[in-house]
Amino acid sequence: MKTKILVVEDDQIISFEIKTILEKNGYDVNICDSYACCIKNLDTFKPELILLDIDLSKKYEGIQIGSYLNSKSHLPFIYITGYTDNETLKRIQTTKPVGYFSKPFREIDIINNIELALYNKKAESDDNTIPEDLEESKYSKPIKRALEYIDTNINQEIKTDELIRVSGWSKFHFIREFAKEVGITPYQYVFDEKMKLASSKLKNTYQPVKEIAFDLGYRSNSSFTNAFVKHAGVSPSHYRKKHCR
Amino acid sequence: MTNGVKEDNERLKEILYKTLHRFKNNLQTQLSLMNIQTSTNRSYFDDKTIIVDRIFALTHVYDLYYISNKEEYLPKDSRVSLQSFMLHFFQYLKNSSSKIDFELNDISEINVEVDDLLILSYIIIEINDFRKSLDDDLYFEIYHQNSKAFFNFSFSSIKTHENFHELFESQYKILDLLVMQLKGKFDYEKKYVKLSFPIL
Predict the structure, then answer these.
(1) How large is the ipTM?
(2) What percentage of chain A exceeds 90 in pLDDT?
């Protein structure tokens, strides 16, 4: 059976070229041009590897997908990028890709990267004897769905109503069960997750504060700064100065 | 003063990164188009001119981009004038052949994204190569309506353009990809083929 590869690239010319190269080399390929399409294809196409353009929709959407894949799945992914500056490389490292290749690329660059990634994946799974889903029973299914929703949409404004809808429970029941199973309220959980991500970005990247605010779904720099001060006791720029390596 | 110098340096760095990024992306597109040409057996009437024309379009788009943004240190608007670009680009094509003509109707206010203009010029280059293979006259009419730009083109020897797609079917893949990238579409009328695409 052919190895399935999902290519997430919004430039039709480049994605067609990659598809042609991969098919010629015996891979089964699907193309996506957006975050939503990629997430949908994880279930429908079930790829074994993903090639991901960083600058999807001209707003670094590829890194958001990378974050999601890193935290939610064990799928290896490789970035395709025209950016090779230190700042971008630091940003992408936090999402733990198995590799990246720079534009302009050659056929051999793509195939070598993919073969190496698939070989490493196989070696890792051969060695890995830890039983899966140890945490399976920790949360009920509706709470798990809500947590997954938060993780997928951490880069956007997340409303409690939406979490309630995803869980399928009533408002009162959801909030009570969430606090019981997770230990904090949904609002506090979303807030903590966003702040964790913000802290990591401030420490490990040179991404401007206003960009981090935007990436986390804040509508203004000041609302993000207020939230961060509430969380860390200092402003984002102060926090960065204190922790910057 | 020191802060000012530091800020200037940061800005220069940002410009450098962006320029390098654009440069690499455009190189990638050129390479991809050449590779797709091979993999889809696209046989151009004049291979060399295709490459030269694409490079001219690329150079010309960025000339316009930097000229129209010369007042700004770091250009924020990535759009340029459709009319300015088309006037120069068609003039350039006409320099190689008198068998190509065009009319621009009321597009002086229209600005188009640099990346879209490039794709558009690559489409025109493809169509111009069809013209060469037919040894025909090619006429373009360009206008806009609401939030769409229209490029109508016709060949004098083709009686009905409704069958234009069939005529070049085996050579169409690159053109299809370019039109998809532009989020546009072709409509085949009797007297012309109409290419339409959204302008923001």
Answers:
(1) 0.81
(2) 27
